[in-house]
Amino acid sequence: MRIAIYPGTFDPITNGHLDIIERASQLFDRVIVTVAVNSSKTPMFTAEERVALIKAILKQKRLTNVTVEHFSGLLVSFARKKKAAAIIRGLRAISDFEYEFQMALMNRKQANDIATVFLMPHERYTYLNSSIIREIARLHGNFKDFVHPVVVRALKKKLRR
Predict the structure, then answer these.
(1) 72 flagged as catalytic
(2) Whole-prediction pTM value?
(3) Residue 148 appears among annotated catalytic residues
(4) Which one of 19, 26, 44, 60 is separated from 147 by 20 to 30 angstroms, measured CA to CA?
(5) Which of 142, 147, 104 is closest to 125 using CA atoms?
(6) Which listed residue (70, 92, 134, 148) is catalytic?
């Protein structure tokens, strides 16, 4: 069984992330979406909330070979624990490449048996990122076309508090 890990903060998950998940689910037997707990970031949603949002979306999309977990620590350690053959990374634009390339090389140095697979989202999602979505939501702009309806509801609820 070929297992891939798709790590990210997913705060919140966007349609670009979902596009990558759907593509990865067609390439691998199992995809584990891993919600990263990053101490250098202050997320809008807790790790548990992000996991729950992604699970709700995956259930609606019927992506049965995709699961969701959260982790902290070294990604390659988590990947080894899960017996993953690959780490999935999304590349939106050339500006992503340098950082992602550096991380891929470092991961390879740590675990050369785990490949990094770069996937590009559909071009209609190349400008999307979670920070932009959070900012549009905070400023009461229209973000419905960029995230799943489950996320739209969660963002609106979160911002009402």
Answers:
(1) no
(2) 0.93
(3) no
(4) 26
(5) 147
(6) 92
